[in-house]
Design goal:
Blueprint: E1 3-6, E2 13-16, E3 20-25, H1 29-32, H2 37-40, H3 52-65, E4 68-74, H4 85-88, E5 100-101, E6 104-105, E7 128-131, H5 142-148, E8 153-159, H6 161-174, E9 178-187, H7 191-206, E10 210-212, H8 214-222, H9 227-231
Parallel strand pairs: 3-4, 3-8, 4-7, 8-9, 9-10
Antiparallel strand pairs: 1-2, 5-6
Length: 233
């Protein structure tokens, strides 16, 4: 696969696409649609909609290129044996993790609300990581999957910017992965936390990673010669 160069903060980047994957964090009905976990926490879930179209465009480009795409979902086993009691106990008992809502039991694997939204639904061959925590590396086989494929760079998208995206990026950074957070492909229930979440990643020379818009990346991908042209170069 070719390499792309595009604008990013704190500095422009060149990425060998062979060593890169797109990781889409928790674009689940439970966070984006009314009646799920996000709404149960008292949030305005419509705020996350802004990330859907940019994610869809990057996902389409990644699929076209043949880039590894990994989806994650936050949630727990139906018996909640993997849910820390202190996590479950937070919030109104009628509305907490495991309670029954309009999309099934809140944040429970296998329930309609736990699934990924239709617009970004994984293809059969795209791995889906079910994670019990906010970070995608905690108690999952994500790291093994990335190392087995020689991946060292992650394009990160999803929700929410300051919670699962930030936690995952911090985990990835400590494990030696380079993270490029796609700003408009992420969203938060709190616009100010979205901005702060991105600022924290790219500050201090990119202390946790880089932040880029999806447009510069997509433009760089669109400018790539196609396979046939590459062969004759
Ligand atoms: N509440 C909130 O902002 N986020 C989460 O609980 N999980 C994720 O970010 N996926």
């Amino acid at each position: 696969m070719p390499r792309v160069t595009f604008e990013a903060e704190p500095a422009p980047l060149t990425v060998e696409l062979d060593g890169a994957a797109l990781v889409i964090i928790d674009m689940q009905r439970d966070f984006l649609e009314p009646g799920g976990f996000g709404a149960a926490l008292g949030n305005d879930v419509t705020r996350l909609q802004a990330a859907v179209a940019p994610c869809r465009d990057v996902l389409a480009a990644a699929r076209h290129l043949g880039l590894l795409v990994i989806h994650t979902r936050e949630g727990h086993r139906p018996d909640l044996s993997d849910a820390p009691p202190h996590k479950v106990e937070r919030g109104d008992p009628k509305n907490r993790i495991g309670a029954r809502g309009p999309m099934g039991r809140i944040l429970v694997r296998g329930e309609p609300g736990h699934d990924i939204i239709a617009a970004l639904y994984p293809l059969q061959e795209e791995p889906v990581i079910d994670k019990p925590g906010k970070g995608a590396f905690y108690q999952t086989d994500l790291e093994l999957m990335l190392r087995n494929r020689g991946i060292d760079t992650l394009f990160v998208a999803g929700v929410t910017t300051e919670v699962c995206v930030n936690t995952t990026v911090r985990e990835a950074n400590d494990r030696g992965f380079r993270c490029i957070v796609l700003a408009d492909c992420c969203a938060s229930y709190f616009p100010e936390f979205h901005e702060a979440g991105l600022a924290m990643i790219k500050a201090q020379g990119g202390i946790f990673g880089s932040v880029a818009g999806s447009q510069p990346l997509l433009a760089a991908i669109a400018a790539l010669p196609n396979k046939q042209q590459r062969k004759s170069m």
